Amino acid sequence: MTARDAVHEWNVFSYNFPCGFCQHCWRDEPSMADHFERKFERWYKSVGSYGVILAFSSELSGRHYERFVEYVVSGEWRKCDEWMKETGRY
């Protein structure tokens, strides 16, 4: 993946993030998924949809930041809606 492709994927995600992406991204760590979902919701209420991804990602650290970046730029986030339906979260 080129840097251009990664930036493009980040931008597409930033304006089209699926509901429940925190649950999907950190599905192997349910308590962290819940924690990050609450954090995301606080940021969303504070800055709105246009700034929420930047604000949210800036608070992640270490492996959680790395996981989130990989989740977004790899396009894994595009499978979130399907996963949410399969797991009965919708």
Rg computed from alpha carbons, rounded to a whole number of angstroms: 13 Å
Name the beta content range.
Answer: under 5%
Q: List segments where confidence is low: pLDDT < 50 over at least 5 consecutive residues.
A: none
The overall pLDDT average reads: 96
Q: Count the E strands.
A: 0
- Outline, from the CA principal axes? globular
- Largest sheet composition: none
Number of DSSP helical runs: 6
Classification by helices and strands: mainly alpha
N- to C-terminal separation?
A: 32 Å
Task: Name the helix and strand elements from N-terminus to C-terminus, one letter apiece.
Answer: HHHHHH
Overview of the structural elements:
This protein has one domain (about 5-85). It has about 90 residues and is an all-alpha fold. It has six helices and no strands. The longest helix has 18 residues, at about 30-45.
Helices and strands, with pairings:
Layout: H1 3-16, H2 21-25, H3 30-47, H4 52-58, H5 62-73, H6 80-86
Helix pairs in contact: 3-4
Concise account of the structure shown:
The chain is mainly α. The chain has one domain. The chain has helices at 3-16, 21-25, 30-47, 52-58, 62-73, 80-86.
Summarize this structure as a short list of keywords or feature phrases.
single chain; 90 residues; mainly alpha; 6 helices
